[in-house]
Design brief:
This protein is an alpha+beta fold and 723 residues long. The chain has 29 helices and 12 strands.
C-alpha cells in the first residue's frame, strides 16, 4: 500500500513553505478539538449516569455488569467501563472528554503514520496529525445534540466514542503488522492483538458493531481481489482476525438475555425486506441532512486530503523509491466509496430492525466516523493517484496555488472552533446549576430531610432531567443516588446575545450576595398612573439561609420617594436559598407610577434585595464606572412629551398634545413591530435622533417625523430614514 514519489528538481518558495504550512494546518485543526475539550470540562452527571452509579455501588462492578447483561443488553465492555466510571466522584466525569479526544487524536495520528502518507520524517508526522485532526473535527461537527450526547455525556460517550479508540487502534495494528511478513511468529501475535481489539470495539454498541463487521467483511473481499500477491495473505489474515473478533462480539451480544428483555419493549421486528427499505431510507435522510446542514464539511473533507497528497506526494529520496511498491490502483477509488456507503447503511440497520425507527442522535457519531473517515481516505488516495500521472513540471507550477488554497482552508476549522466555544456560557451555567443542585441534596441528606424541591440542571444535550413527577425514571435514579426524594423545576432563562446587546452594563454589588451586571429599562419616560419595566441580569455569588426578595424604588433627584414595589426574584420559584452561584439569569420587574406623582425630568430607578424575614435591605454599591445613584434616569411627564409636564413651556397646549400624539404613534410602531420590537429599539431611538420631546426641536423636524410616520409602514424604514 506504499506509494512511489517523484522528487521535484526545482525547489522554490512554495516548497520552503511546506513545513510551516503543515504546522499552521495542524494548529488550525487543533482548535476545534481544544474547544470540545474545554466545553467538556463543564460536564457533570446526566440522566443514566445516576442509574449506572446506583447499580455498581449496590452490586459491585461484577454484579452490575452481570445485572445489565441479564436485564438490558449484551454490550459487556460498555457495562464494564460504565460501572468503573460509576465508582468515581461525579465531578471527575468532566475529564473524560479531554482523555478520550486526546487519546483518539494520538491513536488516529499513529494509525495514519503507519500507512506512510509521506516519506520524509516531518512531512509524515505533520500530515498524519493534520489528517487525524481534520477527520475528528468534521465528525464531531454533527447535529446540535450529537456531540453533547456522544462526547460530553459519560454514558453516551462510553457507548459511541469509546469503541472508536479500539477501532482506530485496530486499524493502526493492521497497517503496522502488514509490514512484518517475514517475522511469522510476530505476525501471528499481531493477528491476535488485532482480533482482541476488534472484538473489544464491537462490545460497546450494536450500531458500531454492525458497521464494523460490514466494513471488515467488504475490505477482506476487496483485498483478496486487489492487493498484490506478495502481501495479500498478510493483509487478509489481519482483516479476518478482525472479522472473527467482531463476530465473537456479535455472538456475545445476541445470546445475552438482556437483549431479549429490551427487545420485548419494542414492537415485533419487521421482515428483512422492510428492514432493508427502512435502512436505505434512513441512510438517505442522514446524507440529505448532512449535505444541507454542513455542505462545506463534505466538500473540504473531499478536497483537503487530496491537496495534502499533492503537496507532499512527490517528496522522497532514491532509497525511498526503491523500497516502495505500486500505489493502490484505480479499483480502490471505486471500492472505498462502495464500502463507505454500505457500512454507513449498516449503522442504521440495528434500530431499523429492533425499534423500527431512526436511531437516537448520539449514535450518529458512528455514522459520522464511517462517512468522513471514508471520504478522507478516498480523497488522499485520489490525490496520490492523480499526482502519479502528472509530470513533475506541472506539479511544480501548482505548488503556489496549493499553498494558497491550504492557507484558506484554515478558516474552516477556526469557524468550527468558534461555534464550539460559543457553547461555553450554556455549559458553564449547567455546571454551576449542577454544583448547587448536588450541594443542596447532600446537605439535605446530612440534615435528615426526606424530600427536596430544587432547580434542576438544564443541559444542551437534550437529555431528560429531574422534573416534578417523583415517579419519573430520572427522579428515581437521582433520588436513589442521593438518598433523598428529589423533584425539580427549570431555573430562569439564561441571557442570550440579543439580550446583552441592548442592555447597559451597570456592575452593582448587592450585599455581596449577587451582582446586577446589566440592566435595561424598557422606556425612559412614563406618565403618572403608568408603569415602568426593567430587566436585569443577575449573577448570584452565594446562597443564603433565609429567602430574599426584590425591592424597586423610584426617587426624584433629591432622594424623595415617588414609588416603591417589592416582588419575588423570579416569580417565587428561584430564591436566594436555592439559586446557583455563578449562573447568570434574566428577570423582568414592573413598578407602577402613582397618579398623583409630580412631573420630573430625572427620576432615579433603584433595584436591590431585602431580607424577607427582617425586611432589611442589603447594601447597594455601584462598582467601576457604574452610575452611583441608580440603574437609570426616568422622565415623568403629564403630557408624555415636551417640558410642559414639569416646567414652563412657551408652546401652546395644543402643540404639546400634538407632540404627545406623535410620540405615542411612533412608539406603538416600534413596540409592535415583529422585527425591531424583540430587539428593544424603541422610543429612545427616535427620541435621540429627532428629539421630539426636546424644546430645541424645530417645527420642521417635527413635521418631518410626522410625515415619515404617515408614509412609511415599516419601522425599519423609519429608523433608516431618521438616521
Amino acid at each position: 500500500m506504499d506509494m512511489p514519489f517523484q522528487t521535484s528538481t526545482r525547489p522554490g518558495f512554495a516548497e520552503k513553505l511546506r513545513i510551516p504550512l503543515l504546522v499552521v494546518l495542524a494548529g488550525a485543526f487543533l482548535v476545534p478539538l481544544v474547544a470540545h475539550i474545554h466545553i467538556g470540562l463543564f460536564n457533570r452527571y446526566l440522566a443514566d449516569d445516576y442509574c449506572v452509579a446506583n447499580e455498581v455501588r449496590s452490586k459491585g462492578v461484577r454484579g452490575a455488569v452481570s445485572f445489565w447483561y441479564l436485564n438490558w443488553h449484551g454490550s459487556v465492555l460498555f457495562d464494564l467501563f460504565a460501572s468503573l466510571g460509576g465508582l468515581l466522584p461525579p465531578r471527575l466525569v468532566r475529564f473524560w472528554p479531554a482523555f478520550a479526544l486526546t487519546t483518539l487524536t494520538g491513536l488516529l495520528s499513529w494509525a495514519v503514520w503507519q500507512s506512510r502518507p509521506a516519506w520524509r520524517r516531518w512531512d509524515r508526522i505533520l500530515v498524519s496529525v493534520v489528517l487525524a485532526e481534520m477527520t475528528l473535527a468534521v465528525l464531531l461537527d454533527g447535529p446540535p445534540e450529537m456531540t453533547p450526547q456522544a462526547v460530553y455525556w459519560l454514558d453516551g460517550a462510553l457507548r459511541y466514542l469509546a469503541p472508536q479508540l479500539f477501532l482506530v487502534a485496530y486499524i493502526g495494528v493492521v497497517f503496522h503488522a502488514q509490514g512484518l511478513a517475514r517475522a511469522r511468529r510476530r505476525q501471528w501475535a499481531w493477528c491476535g492483538v488485532a482480533g482482541v481489539l476488534a472484538m473489544s470495539a464491537g462490545l460497546f454498541s450494536e450500531t458500531h458493531m454492525a458497521a464494523q463487521i460490514t466494513g471488515l467483511v467488504l475490505a477482506s473481499l476487496a483485498c483478496a481481489c486487489f492487493v498484490p500477491a506478495a502481501r495479500r495473505m498478510t493483509v487478509i489474515v489481519l482483516l479476518i482476525a478482525g472479522v472473527g473478533g467482531s463476530m465473537l462480539a456479535l455472538l456475545v451480544t445476541v445470546v445475552a438475555p438482556g437483549t431479549m428483555v429490551r427487545q420485548g419493549l419494542f414492537p415485533d421486528p419487521p421482515g428483512m425486506l422492510d428492514t432493508g427499505l427502512w435502512t436505505l431510507g434512513y441512510t438517505r435522510d442522514y446524507l440529505v441532512e448532512v449535505a444541507g446542514r454542513t455542505p462545506w464539511n463534505l466538500v473540504l473533507t473531499t478536497v483537503v486530503p487530496a491537496l495534502l497528497a499533492w503537496l507532499v506526494g512527490d517528496l522522497g529520496n532514491a532509497r525511498d523509491r526503491e523500497q516502495s511498491t505500486r500505489p493502490p490502483g484505480q479499483p480502490w477509488l471505486l471500492v472505498i466509496p462502495f464500502i463507505t456507503v454500505v457500512a454507513l447503511a449498516a449503522t442504521f440497520a440495528p434500530t431499523a430492525w429492533a425499534a423500527s425507527s431512526f436511531p437516537p442522535v448520539r449514535s450518529l457519531l458512528v455514522s459520522q466516523v464511517v462517512l468522513f473517515g471514508g471520504l478522507a481516505t478516498w480523497s488522499y488516495l485520489l490525490g496520490h493517484s492523480t499526482r502519479a500521472h502528472m509530470r513533475p513540471q506541472h506539479v511544480y507550477r501548482l505548488r503556489s496555488p496549493l499553498v494558497v488554497a491550504l492557507l484558506l482552508v484554515t478558516i474552516w476549522p477556526l469557524g468550527i472552533g468558534w461555534r464550539t466555544f460559543a457553547l461555553r456560557a450554556e455549559a458553564n451555567a449547567y455546571a454551576r446549576t449542577w454544583e448547587s443542585f448536588d450541594q443542596q441534596l447532600r446537605e439535605a441528606r446530612t440534615q435528615g430531610i426526606n424530600a427536596v424541591r430544587v432547580p434542576a440542571p438544564e443541559n444542551f444535550a437534550g437529555l431528560e432531567v429531574v422534573g416534578p413527577d417523583t415517579a419519573h425514571w430520572v427522579n428515581g435514579c437521582v433520588s436513589a443516588f442521593y438518598g433523598v426524594s428529589v423533584t425539580g423545576y427549570p431555573p430562569p432563562p439564561l441571557p442570550n446575545a440579543v439580550d446583552l446587546q441592548v442592555m447597559d452594563a451597570v456592575g452593582v454589588d448587592v450585599g455581596g450576595i449577587a451582582i446586577i451586571t446589566d440592566s435595561w429599562v424598557r422606556q425612559t419616560y412614563a406618565e403618572p398612573g403608568g408603569t415602568l419595566s426593567v430587566t436585569v441580569r443577575w449573577l448570584p455569588r452565594m446562597r443564603t439561609e433565609v429567602p430574599h426578595g426584590v425591592f424597586i424604588d423610584l426617587n426624584d433627584s433629591t432622594g424623595r420617594s415617588i414609588a416603591q414595589h417589592t416582588t419575588a426574584i423570579a416569580e417565587g420559584a428561584y430564591n436566594t436559598t436555592v439559586w446557583a452561584p455563578g449562573r447568570p439569569f434574566l428577570a423582568t420587574y414592573t413598578i407602577g407610577i402613582p397618579k398623583q406623582a409630580e412631573p420630573t425630568g430625572n427620576a432615579r430607578l433603584i433595584l436591590g434585595l431585602y431580607d424577607e424575614s427582617t425586611l432589611q435591605r442589603l447594601p447597594w454599591e455601584a462598582r467601576g464606572g457604574a452610575r452611583a445613584h441608580g440603574l437609570a434616569d426616568v422622565r415623568i411627564a403629564t403630557s408624555g412629551c415636551g417640558r410642559g409636564g414639569y416646567s414652563t413651556d412657551n408652546r401652546v397646549a395644543a402643540s404639546r398634545r400634538m407632540d404627545a400624539n406623535i410620540e405615542n404613534a411612533v412608539t406603538r410602531r416600534f413596540v409592535d413591530d415583529a422585527l425591531v420590537g424583540p430587539l428593544q429599539i424603541e422610543a429612545r431611538v427616535y427620541e435621540s435622533v429627532v428629539s421630539l420631546c426636546d424644546d430645541d426641536t424645530s417645527g420642521d423636524e417635527r413635521e418631518r417625523a410626522v410625515e415619515m410616520a404617515r408614509q412609511v409602514d415599516g419601522v425599519v424604514d423609519v429608523v433608516d430614514l431618521m438616521r
